[in-house]
Amino acid sequence: MNPLAHQHRLTSWFWSDEGDEVIRSRCVSGIVLTNTVDIPAPPPRLLADWEREISTRLDLEPGDVEEMPLARARARWPDFKHCVQAIVDWTSALGLPGVVAASDVALMVCRGARYHHDGEQYGSAVFCNLFVSNDKGLDLHFPSIDLRIPLTRGTVVIFDTCQPHGVIRRHGDGFSTADFPADQDFTQLFLTWELPVENERIAQALGIVFDTAPSASPQPAEEQVWLDGIRVTLCPDSGRWIKPG
Q1: C-alpha distance from residue 4 to each of 19, 28, 187 (Å)
Q2: Which residues pair with 190 in a beta bridge?
Q3: Cα(136)–Cα(189) distance, rounded to whole angstroms?
Q4: Predicted pLDDT of residue 5
Q5: Where would I find the beta strands (DSSP E) of 40-112?
Q6: Is residue 170 located within the same domain as residue 227?
Q7: Tens digits of residue pLDDT in 14-50
Q8: Is the same domain home to 155 and 74?
Q9: Is the Cα torsion angle 177, 182, 186, 187 positive or negative in sign?
Q10: 60 and 88: one domain?
C-alpha cells in the first residue's frame, strides 16, 4: 500500500489564525523535511544542569516528553545563538526565510516518546525541531509514512503536527517501555519552534491544502483529526490509527 494514499483520507480540524474563533479543515501532510546541521556540543556545565533537572524535578519516565527551563539554559549556553542561526540558515535555504525568527522557541526533553500526534492542541502549526543531544541509538519514527530518522546532534526536522510520530530504539518495531531501562541514558533534548501552518510558504513546502472537508461535513467544536470522516485516536505502542467502536 502506498503510505501517501493513507494520508489523503486524513483531515485536521484546527483553529485558524485568519479569523475570530474560526475552525478550519486541512489535509495532513506526509512530507517531512529533514537534514543534519553543524552545531557545537552543549558545554559540560549545562549537561550537568540538565541531568539534575531531569532526575530531581521531572522524574522522566520512558515515553515522556516534557518542557525544560530555557531561560536558565541560555545563561549557561554560549553557543545557543549558533544553534538558532543554524536553523535560520537551513529554513532560509528551504525557501522559508523569517519563519523561525517570528516564532517562539522552547527547550524539550524526551526519554523516547510514545506514538502520538499533536493535532488536538497544535493543529494550526507545524513543528520545527533541532536535536542537541548526541546519538543514543534512537530514531524519530513516522509509522504512517514508513520514515525513520536517526537522532544525532544537529538533526533538524519540520513536520505536520498531526502526523503520527514517536521516538523509539533504532532497531525496534514500536514503542516499549522495556526498551528504555533506568540504568541507561536515553534522554534526548531538542529545541522546538511552532511554525504557522497557514503561512503560505510553509503550506507549500509541506503540500498542505486547506478547506478539504466536504461542505456538508459537521464542523467540530474543537481541534481533532479525522480518518475517512471519523474522529480517530492513536495507538501509543504501534502508531496505528484507531477508529471508535
Answers
A1: 31, 10, 31
A2: 108, 131
A3: 11
A4: 39
A5: 65-68, 105-111
A6: no
A7: 999 876 678 999 999 999 999 999 999 999 999 999 9
A8: yes
A9: positive
A10: yes
**Who's near 202: CB < 8 A, 6+ residues apart?**
96, 99, 126, 195, 196, 208
Q: In whole angstroms, what is the distance from residue 85 CA to residue 224 CA?
A: 34
Instruction: Please give the tally of structural domains in the chain.
Output: 2
Position 79 pLDDT exceeds 90: yes
Cell numbers for 203, please give them.
Answer: 503550506
Same domain, 65 and 109: yes
Residue 18's domain comprises 3-28+205-242
Chain Cα centroid distance, residue 94? 18
Q: How far apart are CA 173 and CA 122, in angstroms?
A: 27
Helix (H) or strand (E) holding 81: helix 80-93
Q: Which band of pLDDT confidence, cut at 50, 70 and 90, is reported for residue 8?
A: very low
> In the prediction, which pLDDT does 20 show?
65
